[in-house]
Amino acid sequence: MTTRTSLIALLAAAVFLPVLTTAAQPRPGDAPAPAVQGPPVDRIDPRPLAPIAPSSDPKFRPKRGGETLSDRVVSYTMKATLDPAKGVKSVTGTERVTWRNPGDSPVSELQFHLYLNAFRDKNSTFMKESGGRLRRDDMPEDGWGQIDVTAMATADGEDLLPKLEYIQPDDGNAEDRTVARVPLSKPVMPGETIALDIAFVSKLPRIFARTGFAGNFFLVGQWYPKLGVYEPKGMRGRAEAGWNCHQFHANSEFYADFGVFDVELTVPQGFTVGATGALLGGRPSEDGGVTYHYRQADVHDFVWTADDNFVTGERTVSIEGMPDVKVIALVQAEHAATLERHLDATENSLRWFHANVGPYPYETITTVDPQDDGGGAGGMEYPTLITAGINTTSAGTLPADDDPLLEVVIFHEFGHQYWYGMVASNEFEEPWMDEGINSYTESLGMADLWPAKRAAWIAYGGVNLFRLPLDNPTLGPFSRFASTQFVVRRGPMIGTSWGYKGGQSYSFNAYQRPENALQTLGVLIGEEKMAEVVRAYFARWKFGHPTSQDFFDVASEVSGQNLQWYFDQAFRSDRLLDYGVQSVRTREEEEIAEVILERTGDAVFPIQALVTRDDGSTESLEWDGLSSQQIFRIAQLPEIRRVDVYPNRTPKLDAYATNNTWLSHSDRAGPARIATDAALFFEHLTLLLAGVVS
Fold first, then answer.
1. Which of 98, 294, 297, 477 is in Cβ range 3.0-4.6 Å of 275 for a Cys bridge?
2. What string of H, E and C letters represents the secondary structure of 373-428?
3. pTM for the full model?
């Protein structure tokens, strides 16, 4: 899921961004910092680290070369009918759920997510935590929705509905109905399967938090009774087997087993449908509508959209090493001029991820443009279907040709096909593994694909009025703020999605802070090696549900060095990274100069400072960064012009740029660096107030 921009944020950026972007620019040709074996974190600071799930038992690594891509623990065969009538807006459905016990012990109950009950009333955990507001969208007063299970029985006819019981495993909120347990009269033995027939009615909310309707636009997400994940002992480092089925929280997203979805969707005549998977065909329905048949294997969710206002475009993309992919765009009629941009951005995203991460294995990818008043459905990911959205500073205005907002949203959401979709980490418990890794690859891909499409425009009354003299804020220049003490000192990056101190803290720790940590890892081990880490992690763990430690282990393995010291600091602690040049002192009588570097934070990082002299010659100063201060004695002449503590590229985890460079002569760079801290603070304060980061 991505965040959106606003007029106030753009105006704030126009004031502060020119100052911010002058500091800490790369110097081409300089070598990266030397890789060093860091010390155990407890030797630096004895405070405990945030707990994480240990590495997965090797037997739970995905097996390659089989007949299927995933383990296919579950399958859903569903039939659903949309009623778009005013005041109804519901989906009536049936499903046969078939589940296989993947563990070594009997299972005596099933647990289901009933996500739509988050919008049942103000007493749900989701509504209490969010206050009825998410991503700058407010829950409409008359927009409530819910899911009612009307029948549930085993395939052999045992009625289970009287046994259904709502549970609240996370917070004990007795009013929350987003998780239900169903005791079984006969346990499911290891390797055995059970099939249930379920009937349900889903009353859709007005568009809010990724799902619902706006007029005749429908984004039907998290709409059916959905099994949780039964985790055997050793899976994701679990000490004992059990269900992983969390309540729906304001900041949580999703986690589910891979399987097969075979779905028939019935809608009124005149509606265009898009959905997860491949369209197998359509036929007239008995009620005068149309029934569409979709099927997709090796995914963990199914979503669909319907609208009587879509303009449709599609193309087939052929890339060596993967099946042909049908790229589909469903765009609002009033946005028809952007149809090719939707298709181009989706195709370019597909090609970039294939080249830089790994092959896309599915036959389709659909990009959906919500209605203007359905913004709560925009910027969201589901298997083989993503939502984008036209968003400028003025409603009804299409983005300018060099404004990248549409492309960055599509690229970000397409990236989720890999980290949320195929790798499928647990977003409830370790949200950074999806959003953070995706934000990191987004920053790389946008720089590669759209280096010239960076403008920020002010629009009003349907017209792009003028171009601001800065990069568009949606490209992420604000992420450095997530490395400052205002964020870092509030706690470790790793934690449950509902355990952070507010929505802004969730956003920083799920998106920007891990992006900064991964960029810094690239500075530490080198960009080529970092690219290998990303590719190797995806290749090993696609269709595998890894833990944070699984990612850390891949990085150490690929880099050829034990990087646990780095991950413990960056992800599991509130340690602040900040190095700088304290001073440069000359001793004329000894013909030497003393360059004093300092560590002002409590995190450790290897440093390779660069001394530049008046004659253009340079000298590297290598420091393991362990002590609080390091003094280098070097020749005084030729005169030292500048000292850069990060000569190649400033790690984004470094909290403050004001101390990164020492200059012998005053120039514009000095005042710019002094202003950086203030710019970071005030810009992000404005962004928080504007709701751009959430």
1. 294
2. HHHHHCCEEECCEEECCCCCCCCCCCCCCCCCHHHHHHHHHHHHHHHHHHHCCCCC
3. 0.93
